[in-house]
Design a protein that fits this description.
There is one protein chain. The chain is of the alpha/beta class and 575 residues long. It has three domains: 8-146 and 270-448, 3-Layer(aba) Sandwich (Rossmann fold), CATH 3.40.50; 149-266, Domain 2, N(10)-formyltetrahydrofolate synthetase (2-Layer Sandwich), CATH 3.30.1510; 463-545, Formyltetrahydrofolate synthetase, domain 3. The protein is 36% helix and 19% strand. It is built from 19 helices and 25 strands. The strands form six sheets. Strands 1, 2, 3, 4, 5, 6, 14, 15, 16, 17, 18 and 19 form a twelve-stranded mixed sheet that branches. Helix 15 links the parallel strand 18 (393-398) and strand 19 (421-425). The longest helix has 21 residues, at 148-168. The chain is globular and about 70 Å long. The two termini are 19 Å apart.
Length: 575
Amino acid sequence: MSTSYLSDLEIARQTAMTPIDQIAEKIGLQNDQIECYGRFKAKILLETISKKNQKSQESQKNQQNQQDSPSNGHLILTTALSPTPAGEGKTTTSVGLADGLNRIGKKAVVCLREPSLGPSFGMKGGAAGGGYAQVVPMEDINLHFTGDLHAISTAHNLLAAVLDNHLHFGNPLRLDTRRLVWNRVVDLNDRALRKIVVGLGGTAYSVPHESSYDITVASEVMAIFCLSNSIFELKERLGKIIVGYTSDGEPVTASQLRCHGAMAALLKEALKPNLVQTLEANPALIHGGPFANIAHGCNSVLATKLALKLADYTVTEAGFGADLGAQKFFDIKCRQAALNPSAVVMVATVRALKYHGGVDLKDLTQPNPNALIAGFDNLRKHLENIRLYGVPAVVAINSFPTDTEEETQLIIKKCSEIGVRVAKSEHWAHGGVGAEELARTVVETIDKEPSTFKPLYPNEMPLLEKVETVCKKIYGAERIIVEKNVRKKFEQFEELGFGHFPICIAKTQYSLSADPSLRNRPTGFDIPIRDARISAGAGFIVVLTGEIMTMPGLSKSPAAERIDIDEHGQITGLF
């Protein structure tokens, strides 16, 4: 089987999909527990999740009385070394691993983030996997899917509209229009909207003030959506969103604008996890998709916890490299949701190791063992970081057609030298068959190396000390540089009662540092802390470093120029 002449979309179309009710049956869900969106997509009812939670709690209580192991399955995180601009295939590896686990007789579910239309029409493309390791229906998943991101956009923009309406009708909460922090969102890359002015036109057009647009996946509503365990918790978190400050520095929230109930109502259907399938008809839950820079970059807690109750192995992923995605998965998602990961799969590619060894992008397909050895320092640092959390790791070599056997064997040798299990995986070209070795290696690792997971820092640690801990221990920074006005913000956050929050550092994904030009494992660098803001509903402090854009722009030749549809309704150009 080869993908040499077929696009991802063509491969997906060649596969005969299984009706979604049959996929649901594989994980013990009945027809009355799902809502079908056509023949091949479904949402899982929240009542089903509630009942599964109740049964799981009863089962765990009984097992604890009998001193048995807990009833939940094993949670496996897929992450990666610092990526090249093309990405290293975390989603593809996650799908391939889930298929591989099912092929070796394990009951496995893959939990993924929902793709954003921004990258789908931009440079990176969709996020449904690739080759013979995909989730389908690929076109639906990469476009509007079940409408969740539209619901999140609408809920976010409703709060913006209510905020401006409040200003128009006299501003009784005394908001300082110079200190408003709630903007608007759209799920597209549109650089023209990064800085705007609203309310122009006179007294009939509201109060003029500066504002901006972010891409939907950067919205705090998205982060809240993915961290909530129920509709009640969702509404409660939405109410805590800070929209701005008074002239005295007091925060004003969505609940004070009496908007959080309507926002939650808009999200009621979206909160139900989405069920689809892999090309090999294995279950896949795809739900939520926050930015891995400005937020925690993981799928929803609801979907993850449900998968842990429905399967023996749950494979999930976190955005970008392990310094961003894995760190936030551990210190934000696992901390807030009380999750205990069993293993980490660290995706590495020959091309990324050569890139970190100093090879230009245009030359990455040329054999270069010396550069690969030099670039291994980047992978080694990420593996060292995973050990800080007490979770065993397996390196997955995501195989590409341009890799040489010598280069692959070099990676295996270098991993063996540092005592890390490693497996070559050819899921892109061969699907689950190509991931069986990886699946067996992961199962063996979980069986032989029990996880002793613990977060990197305690809740009670001061906020700036948390920032310094991540920057020094995870990134390898020499020091952090914090201007006096930013330092004052951290003091104010603690005075307002947010000192126990975890921190979410927004920085480039291309380097362990805040400078994307510093490849491999840089040393002696500083991390400049440019700004900080509270995501009070999501429950973390966002720390900005370098130049992080929350509204991307389109490339000179975006994917949108190649996507088309014919008279028969067949879409082309998606990847």
